[in-house]
Amino acid sequence: MQSFKRFAIGVTLIGGMAVAALGGAAAGGAAVYVAIRDSLASTPPAAQSPAQNPPPAELQTVDIQTAITDAVARVSPAVVTVINDTGGGQASGSGVIIATEGYILTNNHVVEGHRQLSVIFSNGETAEASYVGSDQFGDVAVIKVGVPVPATAELGNSDTLKPGETVIAIGSPLGDFKNTVTVGVVSATGRALETAQGYQLEDLIQTDAAINHGNSGGPLVNLAGQVIGLNTLVVRGGGVDQAEGLGFAVAANTVRAISEQIVAQGYVSRPYLGVQWQPISPAIAQQNGFGVEWGIYVTDLASDGPAQRAGLKPGDIITAIGGTPLDESTPFINALLQFQPGQQLPLTVYRDGQTMQFDVTLGERPQA
User: Fold this and answer.
1) Which of 65, 109, 116 is nearest to 90 (CA)?
2) Could you tell me the CATH superfamily of domain 271-364?
C-alpha cells in the first residue's frame, strides 16, 4: 500500500493509501440535555435535591451513549471505503455518500494520482466509482457511483460547533477495519495548518477522536447524526515531542461550498495570477540581501498572464495582495484565495529598492 504525501513537519495526511440541518452539532447536545432534564423533572421533588439525593451518574451516561449509537446508526450505512488504484500500487481512504444520485465526498489526497477508483459499501458490496472533481486547496473531492446506494448522510452547519461538543469519527483505518467508530470532542474550531506546498489548510476542526491512516475522507459526525467535517489529517509531533489526540477535519460548511462547485462544473473556480515564485522569509531575505522580510520572489511569468499584463517582471518581490500583507500567518496562496477570478486588485511590489503598486485583474486557475 502506498503512502500519501506528508505535510510540513509533524502533519500527516491520514489517507492510507448540500445545506440541510439547522442547529448543527448544537442540536445533538440540546437533545441530550432535554432528555436528561425531562427525566429529572419526572422524579419526586425531594429526589431533585443534589445534597439529599443526586441523580444517578448512569443517567447521563445512558443518554449520551444512546445519542452516540443513534448517530452512528444513521450515518454508518452511508460511509464507504475508497480504493485508489494508481497503476503502480493501491491505497485506500474513506468517504461518505451525500446524495441518492451516488455522489460521495472524500479528500483530494485520497483520490490523487488515481487511475481507477472503486468503493466498498458498509454492507461489503463493491462498485466502480468515477472521478467528478477535486480541490487541492480545500482537500475535498467528489466521486460518483452508478449503482443504488444503501444510504445517504446529511451535512450539518459547522459554524455552530463549540469546543467540548461530542463528535464521532467513522472510517476505515489502515483500509482493513471498515466502518470503525471512535468518539471524542471538538477541541477547537477555525484551525489552520501549513502544508509543504506553500499554503495553509484553513477552517479545520480539531478533535481528539482517534483518527488513523485510512480515515481520510470519512465523516466527523455530531450527536444529531449530521456530518460536520471530513477527517483529513493528524499531527503526531516529532522527536521527543510525540503528540496524540490531534486530529483535524475540513469543516462541513467549507466542504459544502467546494463540493457544490465540483458537482455543478467539475472543478472549483480559483483565482490565477500567472507567476512562478519562491517564498521569502526573514532568514532568506538576510542571506540574499533583499530589502523586505516577507513576500514571494517572482522567478517567471506566464506569457500574457494577469501578472505580466499588469507590468510585473521576474525579480519582483510581491509583498501584499489586495492590501493583505504576506507574512508568516498569511502565505501567498491563502492571500490570493481571498479573491475571485475576474476581480481587480492592487499588488504591492518591491523592485530595485522601491515599493510600487500594480493593478491586476485576476484570471481563473487553469484546470489540469
Assistant:
1) 116
2) PDZ domain (2.30.42.10)
